[in-house]
Amino acid sequence: MVLVTSVRDYINRMLQDISGMKVLILDSETVSNVSIVYSQSELLQKEVFLVEMIDSISVSKESMSHLKAVYFIRPTSENVQKLRYQLANPRFGEHHLFFSNLLKDTQIHILADSDEHEAVQQVQEFYADFVAGDPYHLTLNMASNHLYMLPAVVDPSGLQRYSDRVVDGIAAVFLALKRRPVIRYQRTSDTAKRIAHETAKLMYQHESGLFDFRRTESSPLLLVIDKRDDPVTPLLNQWTYQAMVHELIGLEDNKVDVRAIGSLSKDQQVEVVLSSEQDAFFKANMYENFGDIGMNIKRMVDDFQQVAKSNKNIQTVGKYMRTWPDLLTATLSTKKMQGDVSKHVTLVTEMSKLVEARKLMLVSQTEQDLACNGGQGAAYEAVTDLLNNESVSDIDRLRLVMLYALRYEKENPVQLMQLFNKLASRSPKYKPGLVQFLLKQAGVEKCTGDLFGNRDLMNLARNMARGIKGVENVYTQHQPLLFQTMESITRGRLRDVDYPFVGDHFQQGRPQEVVIFMVGGTTYEESRSVALQNATNSGIRFIFGGTALLNSKSINTVYYMAAFATMILAIPVLLREGNGIMSWFEAHPSPWSAVIIIFSSGVLAFCLNFSIFHVILSTTAVTFKVAGNLKVVVAVLVSLLIFRNPISYMNAVGCGITLVGCTFYGYVRHMLSPGTPRTPRTPRNKMELLPLVNNDKLVGKVYSVFTIHCYVTSSPILDSENTICFSPIC
What we know:
The protein has about 725 residues and is of the alpha/beta class.
């Protein structure tokens, strides 16, 4: 309850101290923060008669001086500029400004200079810069969730914005909790390290006074980890209620868009709410498995029939006894119960149809065997059979091959190649390059934890015992790697070498509060593990957060991104350069020559980007940068020899230093490489010899894999706001 309560308290304080009719103005991010914890009826009780987006308010010029404007927005430069315009021409009687995070001094000065009409009554910071979907689970809903997987040289400014947004979200969580944590991070993740150090700098240096709260017996712990350490969890089909709805139908900000369900009648509502705060049945069953949900819904329907029958008797008596208050109460209660019954029956019925149509029970059993059990030969046969099954969808085939590759990456490259070929023939739009990219991002050499329980002796013993005793449910036997991490923290066995501390702030004793933030996104299966761990009363309260919520559908966003980008850019190009393009066409005697030139330039641009990603993929980002510097020197020397272009003394010295540096870099790489000199990415087996063309456009689809439920799956991998999460299969 801690996260939801914190956000609700902020909104209550924001609204109850301002009397009279109000308009609540939000931005594209705070609208999710508010809507997930506050209903429309509750806003009406606070005299909020209008809810608007800051973008639409900026366009409208209608005066509403009878309303008091309550702004709750993120302190971004874009929002400040929109506020500046609105304050210069105020439409409302009063303006109350609330920001969801830290406001910079320069932004305060900008707002003060713009408030010439003295319309602003107050400016405050209410730290609710996150979406509190569940009591102990939060997300930042970052659209650019894929950026952390790109090399820094590809988009350094985008990666910096990504890190800044994550740091802002983490800071808001601890300001809401009124705590300053000890910070640790996953050693194998550069992104986790960067975010951890920037967060520490904010809390202990730049804003140390703001985070100087009353000290407790033990400092809370912030652990920053990387989703790529556990690529398996997002790839699995889910069988608990909340996770299944998110995977099969879609769950965003605790709302389900039911328009995709074709069997609905036209008079049914477009969205239904699945919130543990507003729906008692969902709260009791959100972590239950699919079989138990069916039985519980049957009991719910039986109870509703009994209540409906009882209300009929009340209505009959009411004709003679005039018990209208009782009749009204019973009618309202029945209506609410009827809505809940209809909602859950509709969702479960639709999911049952999808499970049957996609043969998900058969697919999921193989997925669970790949994730939890050994036996490479049997696994290969099971995956091959499902790849040949016409009822299995393309996305399920891809996930099966990915799981097999993650589990048996080093055991039998020949069989893995055969599965790649089978996948390419059965599902042509998913090339083996997607799987290869996943292995490079999250393969066995990249993982910190014991992902498959075959490294640690204790995990091996546990798996053997489970094999002897059997499992209660073969579809939910997998436990995410996060469970092992929480177990290690509870027992005080989280190794410093794998999860180092930031700075000189160390943990004294066992923490009582732990915030685990996962870069790359979270899943509802992991959220369930956190809730169950908190229910054990271990003395530690865990809070789990991430950059996005992942499921297996996010890969499609990046898959079709190129086509959308073309349509989006076509209109601006025609508006800004249309006359020049037409003049250029007219200058050519034949339009075909102009078309060929334009098409050729596009092909050359694609080849350039393709080669850049190929170099980075085949070597390292540092090698790519060194090669770029060497290219400049070669261009200067060629221009000197062929065109006799003069160069200054400083140019010559610079070229010399560059050549020495490149030579020294090559020498160091040679000395560090064992045996025959070769780059770290040189193909070492048949699988890595697959043509690059099979990587399925690394610039787009490949990068999307991970944000596929990391991988198969709701934040991607080109620089687009619609990227995958896996948010990419992520």
